[in-house]
């Protein structure tokens, strides 16, 4: 970083944010040059620092290190200070100084800090180490010393901290180098008759008390004592110089002091500190608010000045300082922020952010009441302010219209002209006046109100606040409800002639309904206000974020208490139709969700025609999904927006139509658990194209759709109940009935497909499924998922399906699964038809085929038995992505919350538009309940959430919409992968032609491999004939294959006198190895084997007309076998790093040895478990 007019001479220091050089300018003057690293400071942080630096530039005092040049806008940003040879004050032998010199030196310190404070500049770290001394014994103080810290800990309350620190410095100077912690004895003298030691003692005793209490409770006493102390210093100094004695009151002009009992005159104020007063903009019994201008940066501010009478009141002065401290803590865009606290000429004042608008109380006087949209926009900003305050455990205690200030004069007009989708990105109002605020838990020194005292405005106070009981964040939310009631009706919920009568109503009378005063207010908003005004805090919203969630939903035109949304195009249109149907079902949500979320089946059951789906690009080159329904009655074409859902809670979809009876339609299904069963609510929000469509849709949805849905949901409910008793039936329509001849053929083929390994129960239930289920069900049969549904053994059903495919009862097919959305993107009849790559039209990506993840075996009933329905009635519904817990679409700059109840485990938060996902870990060890995530940082985050409830706030900081998915890390899709099924001996036997094309290689990304090699095979050939030895080894290999199968593995390769098997889970492979070695030793078997377990990628190809496995992982496995002994199992590092490995080693009480030798072609170490005998 070079600056033309300065030539660096020597590097003094460097830090993360930049460097500091000794340099000279073009005139050869030496300067202290500090250059800031571009991008180190955030824009917000740099704006704050720039204002501070401008004040430092204006600090014209010989004891302050002077800024002589700076660049705060263009890069490189820098500061150039005067260069002085100095050393720390601590290194000065102050004891040798004459008392007069020490007095003059102390006066320099006082004058410097006084002038700095007048400009609102705090040092924040004043000490005998940071005060420097020149060769001429003059002081130099660097007020920019903390700019090397990106997160500056300084606050606007640091002026008082400087005063405390200055007292310590004065003590050190005048006592001849004693530390304050050493104290001072009354017997001590200071080598001069003019100085009273008792002044030291009294002052520092008081200082000690103030520091211990760490707040401003005794600040006024301390200031008065320090004022007298410094007056004494100046008196002594001037007497020794033959000058006039200083009167103590003369020091009142210093900004160090204040709080004297004298009444100050606020009428003739022209300037306070660096602020030029322009006009009065408000007043009251406690003081005046002025409009002022900062003379340094020309910004407009509001000065809140307390009157002399209040300043003389100890309690009020304490509350004034407390308000300043709390304002500093809650600093955020939704409050009237404090910029500074200061004092001058006995006048205490707060410098506040100036807000150009009016308080809402005045707006209500002018307009009587607000529209629903106006009320929601303003109250939403109030709630955002409270959410931040409540996070810091600060309760406002005085929420009311007068303490809410609009950001502009014509704010109501601006709200009316703002679209519902943009309201969350604008700030319409700010919360002010934290004068009554307090922490939820305050120590004694902060508790300025007596137990049972009532503080607040009765018209808006909560019942517990009215009764003088303990308040909480929910008390603020009650006040929000009362304020919102006033916005909507033109008056508070309770009115009476006296404050005590109002208080009595808050405590004892039920809150009135808004509908009594305005029937046009929406039901959703009425329910929010009703909940806020409940007497019992436990029955209200429990936090501001929960309330904000419902408020934002209403602004988008959605019902309240919903977690996910489609954002609707327009809800202000009076022609928009709303339908809401409710059913009380006997089944629980977990039983209902798999059926109700199967939108394919529901749409078919409703009698809808299967649409034609295609993808096209918009004018801005964005992809969109189009659907066309070529119905003879109503032709429709629409854009299908992504489904949005939260598993077992809610799902919804928005469709926008190019032609047909709809302009747009949203379908929303919600599940509400009850004590017995579930309340299912299905809502439709529809914009009809014209008056005729309105009449038609009104009739169709009320008379036809409602009845059809009722039949479907009630039938699903009966199925869920009967499933408990293992009764099989079609969940969406009447059971299918086969003709007699088809039934006979089905039973004949079933009989041929069964062997003695398949139970009678599995046979009967599968036959009943093929006979009775819908045409959609039998079009894509997934054995593992079906086994769970039928409650039969998975391996039995796999065997039955393979046999049935060989007998012609089923047809064998291969689904190609997109690795991103996990939805089938293509269907092939044989493996030979597959290429090395697949393409997903929905995600618009090409992907490499992976036998372990992207190729799945499915079955279809043979057309000779019955018809199957391969048409697609819905695309993108939850049932297509069972591994996805939640999917939402966020528009540009939108924010929303996901309120979750995740079980312990690992999850992924991902977006198809982004490359990397965010990892989530849920466990008992985590405590942070809520996380805020900007979508642009998704791939760089790793979140740790506690068990129970979790909240993730998503903020789309892109300029385009994004789809966000919360997924299980391990797919819950019950699939038969090509990797698994191709290794099954039965599959190889029945379908030898199911191989890849010659010379085609397909990857398997994650293969868990288990290898066994018979170590003493040569001994068999030495002791027996070749035939006998071969037979015995063959028998042993059969036993090994049986052992592998018992642990859910399959043999994929035989090599010499050994086998290689694959396993679906690491745990099963580890157990197979441990139990094999132990069982062989316990049975005194003569067989000696080496065992190894490894995990990695492999390639599969067709060799000699059968599938075979190749690659470095296979070679590494063979190497592991060689380094192992016959009484141990050898594991690769990739296996040992799995958490289950340590659990199993501990469970089996094994010790492990890490061998330094690495697996060839990898960086993995070898881990052994010796002595398994």
UniProtKB/TrEMBL annotation:
The protein's topology relative to the membrane is: Single-pass membrane protein
* Class of this enzyme: transferase
Q: Please name the GO terms that the record assigns under molecular function.
A: adenylate cyclase activity; ATP binding; protein serine/threonine kinase activity
A Pfam family annotated for this UniProt entry? DUF5939
Instruction: Quote the cellular component terms of the Gene Ontology held in the record.
Output: membrane
Alphabetic keyword roster: ATP-binding, Kinase, Nucleotide-binding, Serine/threonine-protein kinase, Transferase
Task: Report domain Guanylate cyclase positions.
Answer: 1007-1121
Entry binding sites for ATP:
304
The record's subcellular locations are: Membrane
Enzyme Commission code: 2.7.11.1
Q: Which residues form the Protein kinase domain?
A: 275-552
Q: Superkingdom of the source?
A: Bacteria
Which residues fall in a coiled-coil region? none
List GO BP terms, alphabetically.
cyclic nucleotide biosynthetic process; intracellular signal transduction
What's the protein here called? Answer: non-specific serine/threonine protein kinase
């Amino acid at each position: 970083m070079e600056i033309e007019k300065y030539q660096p001479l020597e590097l003094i220091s460097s830090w993360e944010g930049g460097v500091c050089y000794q340099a000279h300018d073009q005139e050869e003057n030496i300067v202290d040059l500090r250059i800031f690293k571009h991008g180190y400071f955030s824009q917000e942080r740099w704006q704050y620092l720039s204002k501070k630096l401008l004040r430092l530039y204006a600090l014209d005092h010989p004891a302050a290190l002077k800024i002589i040049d700076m660049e705060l806008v263009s890069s490189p940003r820098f500061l150039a200070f005067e260069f002085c040879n100095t050393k720390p004050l601590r290194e000065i032998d102050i004891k040798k100084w004459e008392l007069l010199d020490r007095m003059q030196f102390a006066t320099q310190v006082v004058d410097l800090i006084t002038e700095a404070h007048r400009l609102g500049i705090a040092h924040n770290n004043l000490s005998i180490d940071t005060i420097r001394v020149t060769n001429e014994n003059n002081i130099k103080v660097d007020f920019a010393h903390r700019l090397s810290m990106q997160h500056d800990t300084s606050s606007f309350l640091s002026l008082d901290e400087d005063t405390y620190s200055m007292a310590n410095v004065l003590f050190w100077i005048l006592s001849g180098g004693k530390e304050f912690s050493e104290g001072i004895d009354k017997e001590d003298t200071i080598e001069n008759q003019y100085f009273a030691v008792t002044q030291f003692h009294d002052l520092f005793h008081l200082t000690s008390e103030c520091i211990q209490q760490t707040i401003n409770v005794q600040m006024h006493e301390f200031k008065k004592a320090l004022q007298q102390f410094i007056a004494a210093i100046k008196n002594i100094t001037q007497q020794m110089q033959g000058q006039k004695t200083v009167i103590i009151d003369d020091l009142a002009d210093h900004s160090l002091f204040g709080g004297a009992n004298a009444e100050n005159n606020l009428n003739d104020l022209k300037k306070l500190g660096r602020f030029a007063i322009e006009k009065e903009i408000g007043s009251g019994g406690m003081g005046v608010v002025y409009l002022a201008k900062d003379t340094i940066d020309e910004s407009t501010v509001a000065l809140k000045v307390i009157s002399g009478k209040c300043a003389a009141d100890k309690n009020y002065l304490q509350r004034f300082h407390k308000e300043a401290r709390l304002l500093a803590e809650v600093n955020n865009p939704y409050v009237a922020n404090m910029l500074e606290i200061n004092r001058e000429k006995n006048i205490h004042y707060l410098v506040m952010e100036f807000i150009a608008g009016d308080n809402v109380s005045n707006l209500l006087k002018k307009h009587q009441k607000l529209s629903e949209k106006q009320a929601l926009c303003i109250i939403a900003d109030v709630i955002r302010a409270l959410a931040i305050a409540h996070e810091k455990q600060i309760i406002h205690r005085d929420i009311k219209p007068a303490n809410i200030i609009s950001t502009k004069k014509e704010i109501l007009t601006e709200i009316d002209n703002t679209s519902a989708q943009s309201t969350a990105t604008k700030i319409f109002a700010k919360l002010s006046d934290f004068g009554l605020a307090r922490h939820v838990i305050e120590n004694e020194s902060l508790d300025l109100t007596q137990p049972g005292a009532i503080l607040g405005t009765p018209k808006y106070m909560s019942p517990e606040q009215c009764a003088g009981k303990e308040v909480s964040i929910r008390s603020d939310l009650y006040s929000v409800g009362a304020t919102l009631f006033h916005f909507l009706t033109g008056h508070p919920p309770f009115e009476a002639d006296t404050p005590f009568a109002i208080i009595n109503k808050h405590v004892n009378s039920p809150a009135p309904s808004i509908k009594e005063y305005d029937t046009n207010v929406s039901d959703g908003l009425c329910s929010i206000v009703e909940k806020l005004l409940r007497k019992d805090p436990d029955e209200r919203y429990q936090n501001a974020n929960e309330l904000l969630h419902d408020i934002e939903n209403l602004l988008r035109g959605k019902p309240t208490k919903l977690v996910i949304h489609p954002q609707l195009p327009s809800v202000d249109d009076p022609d928009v139709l709303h339908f809401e149907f409710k059913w009380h079902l006997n089944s629980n949500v977990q039983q209902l969700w798999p059926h109700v979320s199967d939108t394919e089946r529901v749409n078919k059951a409703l009698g809808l025609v299967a649409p034609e789906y295609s993808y096209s690009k918009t004018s801005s080159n964005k992809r969109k999904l189009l659907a066309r329904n070529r119905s003879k009655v109503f032709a429709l074409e629409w854009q299908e927006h992504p489904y949005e859902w939260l598993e077992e809670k809610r799902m919804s979809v928005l469709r926008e139509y190019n032609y047909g009876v709809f302009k747009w339609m949203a379908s929303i299904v919600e599940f509400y658990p009850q004590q017995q069963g579930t309340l299912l609510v299905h809502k439709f929000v529809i914009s009809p194209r014209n008056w005729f469509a309105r009449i038609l849709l009104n009739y169709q949805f009320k008379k036809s759709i409602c009845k059809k849905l009722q039949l479907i949901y009630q039938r699903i409910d009966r199925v869920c109940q009967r499933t408990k008793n293992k009764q099989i039936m079609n969940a969406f329509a009447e059971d299918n009935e086969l003709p007699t001849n088809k039934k006979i053929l089905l039973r004949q083929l079933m009989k041929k497909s069964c062997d003695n390994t398949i139970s009678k129960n599995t046979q009967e239930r599968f036959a009943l499924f093929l006979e009775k289920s819908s045409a959609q069900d039998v079009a894509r049969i997934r054995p593992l998922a079906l086994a769970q549904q039928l409650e039969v053994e998975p391996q039995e059903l796999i065997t039955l399906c393979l046999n049935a495919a060989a007998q012609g009862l089923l047809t064998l097919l291969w689904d190609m699964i997109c690795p991103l959305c996990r939805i089938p993107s293509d269907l092939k009849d044989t493996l030979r038809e597959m290429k090395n790559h697949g393409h997903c039209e929905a995600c618009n990506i090409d992907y490499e085929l992976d036998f372990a993840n992207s190729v799945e075996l499915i079955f279809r009933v043979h057309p000779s038995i019955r018809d199957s329905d391969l048409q697609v009635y819905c695309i993108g519904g939850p049932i297509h992505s069972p591994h996805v817990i939640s999917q939402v679409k966020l528009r540009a700059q939108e924010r929303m919350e996901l309120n979750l109840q995740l079980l312990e485990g690992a999850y992924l938060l991902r977006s198809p538009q982004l490359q990397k996902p965010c990892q989530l870990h849920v466990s008992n060890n985590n405590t942070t309940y809520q996380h805020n995530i900007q979508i642009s940082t998704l791939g760089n985050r790793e979140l740790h959430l506690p068990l129970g409830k979790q909240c993730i706030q998503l903020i789309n900081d892109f300029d385009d919409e994004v789809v966000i998915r919360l997924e299980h890390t391990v797919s819950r899709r019950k699939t038969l992968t090509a990797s698994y099924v191709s290794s099954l001996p039965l599959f190889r036997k029945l379908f030898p032609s199911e191989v890849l094309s010659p010379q085609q290689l397909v990857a398997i990304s994650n293969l868990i491999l288990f290898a066994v090699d018979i170590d003493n095979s040569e001994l068999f050939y030495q002791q027996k004939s070749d035939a006998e030895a071969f037979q015995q080894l063959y028998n042993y290999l059969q036993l090994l294959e049986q052992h592998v199968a018992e642990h859910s593995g399959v043999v994929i390769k035989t090599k010499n006198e050994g086998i290689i098997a694959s396993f679906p889970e690491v745990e099963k492979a580890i157990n197979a190895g441990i139990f094999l070695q132990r069982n062989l030793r316990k049975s005194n078997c003569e067989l000696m084997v080496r065992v190894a377990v490894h995990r990695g990628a492999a390639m599969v190809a067709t060799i000699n007309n059968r599938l075979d496995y190749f690659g470095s992982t296979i070679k590494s496995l063979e190497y592991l076998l060689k380094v192992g002994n016959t009484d141990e199992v050898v594991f690769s590092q990739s296996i040992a790093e799995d958490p289950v490995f340590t659990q199993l080693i501990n469970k089996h009480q094994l010790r492990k040895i890490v061998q330094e030798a690495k697996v060839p072609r990898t960086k993995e170490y070898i881990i052994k478990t010796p002595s398994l005998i």
